[in-house]
Specification:
Layout: H1 2-6, H2 13-18, H3 29-36, E1 51-56, H4 60-72, H5 80-90, E2 92-96, H6 99-110, E3 131-132, E4 140-141, E5 144-145, H7 152-155, E6 184-187, E7 192-194, E8 202-204, H8 206-215, E9 220-226, H9 237-245, E10 249-255, E11 271-277, E12 284-289, E13 295-300, H10 315-324, E14 353-356, E15 363-366, E16 381-386, E17 409-411, E18 416-417, E19 421-427, H11 430-441, H12 443-450, H13 478-485, H14 489-498
Parallel strand pairs: 1-2, 1-6, 2-3, 6-9, 10-12, 14-18
Antiparallel strand pairs: 4-5, 7-8, 9-11, 10-11, 12-13, 14-15, 16-17, 16-19
């Protein structure tokens, strides 16, 4: 048994599993151990500490915890079998997300998919051991699950199919699942759930797992989740606010490139994991992982701004711009997401008001009765920018291009657009709109925009750190703006490294 645990990395099936491209994102032993390293060393020598993984997939967290406890409790429980039995029966608990992952998790921890098998390295008098799986049904109201929001039309299934009604988040009495408290809650929850929308439309659910874990008030809580919550977005606004003001979060580790933490999966915005410490009240240690596995660490308050600024190197730059600029920021001046009330799928008409559609359609017409002008933009010169200017780029560790002549348009009075575009600026004068274009095309302005962007979708709120000038005149340059806002050479070099230079950029 000792040899089983000592030699388990040769080869490690869980490393192979974590590298597979799959809808379920499996955690590698390497990342699992990086997360466990955030916990205090003394817990590995404490035979009373209890651990729960409420979202078991491969069982990697429980396995790696077991290895640490087996080593750490040598002196307290010298007999190996007694030590294993104590750890497995009294300290380690899991809730699998599917029946299959329950079998995988038990195989990882007990070396047998059945805990009462003769092959289990610690015998239980039941099949599950301490890794349970229970088939749960959604609870419907108005054709949606009251717990997770799953649409009844998709997930009203029998036992022959997975319902994805995860036990951990489908109860108001989470403490009764095991009828006990836990010192450490750790896991990698499911990220999204299909919501029945167009294409691959899905809603985030990982925040539900975090919130449910907090209800048990453990000593420590740590989970791996997508980084999109940094700036809020669909279903995440309340979660973002709660996380940023939560002074119990003592550590936050962020990866701009999702593949740096999950090699076989690509998800825009990156991923992060955090340590919630019940006894901590104060600053958070924020660690940014950048290229070549290098990291930059800074102690700061997460709620310094309304959105979370992921880059530690960006903080001094944002502070300078806010201190120097006394007027509005562009989140107050950019148009709403549907500037003329026309959806993306609006069908072009043969005649009417000239209208800019998605690139493959171009300039066509909209029926005048369908066009709204609540923002009084129709009869002005307008600078149109795509709603998704970085579609396809998921690795934010690489330079971002955003806006350039190839994807933006200046359109004359009398022209509208669908929600594929937003109006970044409008004026009675064409020259002023052209001047605004040179302002937007500076790398510094696009860098300020980047600080609120963690996905391809750009809305007016993403411009909260971009100063709105009283008027635009002449040609703007990075040199001019750096001088205006006090940006140092070192800061400029960082800005320059984050924003791509695109052929076709014009500042004239």
């Amino acid at each position: 048994m000792n040899k089983t645990y000592r030699d388990i990395y040769n080869p490690d099936v869980l490393t192979c599993l974590a590298n597979l491209s799959n809808d379920e994102v499996f955690t590698s032993p390497k990342i699992a151990n990086q997360i466990l390293d955030m916990l205090p060393e003394e817990i590995w020598h404490d035979s009373t500490v209890t651990f729960l993984d409420p979202v078991c997939k491969s069982g990697v967290f429980l396995r790696e915890i077991a290895k640490r406890l087996i080593e750490g409790l040598k002196e307290k429980i010298p007999n190996l079998q007694d030590r294993i039995d104590h750890i497995f029966h009294k300290q380690l608990y899991g809730i699998a997300i599917t029946e299959l992952t329950s079998l995988i998790s038990r195989r990882s921890l007990y070396c047998s998919k059945y805990a009462n098998s003769k092959y289990s390295i610690s015998y239980f008098d039941n099949v599950e051991g301490n890794i349970r799986y229970k088939h749960i049904n959604h609870k419907w109201k108005d054709n949606k699950c009251i717990f997770c929001g799953a649409p009844k039309s998709i997930y009203n299934r029998g036992k022959e199919l997975e319902t994805y009604a995860y036990e951990w988040i489908h109860t108001n009495e989470v403490e009764k699942i095991f009828n006990m408290k836990f010192d450490v809650i750790i896991g990698n929850p499911p990220y999204h759930l299909s919501d029945g929308g167009n294409g691959r439309s899905a809603k985030p659910i990982y925040q539900l797992f975090v919130n449910q874990a907090k209800k048990l008030n453990p000593r420590y809580l740590t989970m791996i989740i997508p980084s999109r919550w940094f700036s809020g977005g669909r279903g995440l606004e309340d979660f973002r606010r709660e996380m940023l003001k939560d002074k119990h979060i003592s550590k936050l580790v962020d990866y701009e490139n999702f593949r740096d933490i999950f090699q076989g999966v690509d998800l825009a915005g990156g991923a992060c994991y955090f340590l919630w410490d019940r006894e901590n009240i104060g600053m958070c240690e924020v660690k940014n992982y950048v290229s070549d596995n290098k990291s930059i660490t800074m102690n700061r308050y997460l709620d310094e701004f309304e959105v979370f600024i992921r880059s530690n190197r960006s903080i001094p730059i944002i502070r300078k711009v806010i201190a120097k600029h006394k007027g509005n920021f562009m989140n107050k001046t950019v148009s709403s997401s549907k500037p003329f009330g026309l959806r993306t799928f609006y069908k072009p008409k043969e005649m009417g008001i000239p209208c800019q559609f998605i690139q493959k359609i171009g300039l066509k017409y909209a029926d005048p009765k369908d066009v709204e002008d609540n923002q009084q933009l129709l009869n002005k010169w307008k600078f149109l920018a795509p709603r998704s200017p970085i579609a396809g780029q998921t690795d934010f560790s690489k330079p971002i291009s955003f806006y350039y002549d190839g994807n933006t348009k200046i359109v004359p009075p009398g022209t509208c657009c669908t929600e594929s575009f937003i109006v970044l600026y409008a004026s009675d004068k064409e020259e002023e709109v052209k001047s605004f274009r040179t302002y937007l095309y500076t790398k510094l302005v696009r860098f300020l925009l980047l600080q609120c962007v963690v996905s391809q979708d750009i809305t007016r709120e993403k411009f909260r750190f971009v100063p709105a000038l009283n008027h635009y005149e002449g040609v703007y340059s990075d040199e001019l703006l750096c001088k205006k806002w006090g940006i140092t050479q070192e800061e400029w070099e960082y800005i320059d490294s984050k924003i791509a230079t695109v052929n076709g950029d014009k500042n004239d």
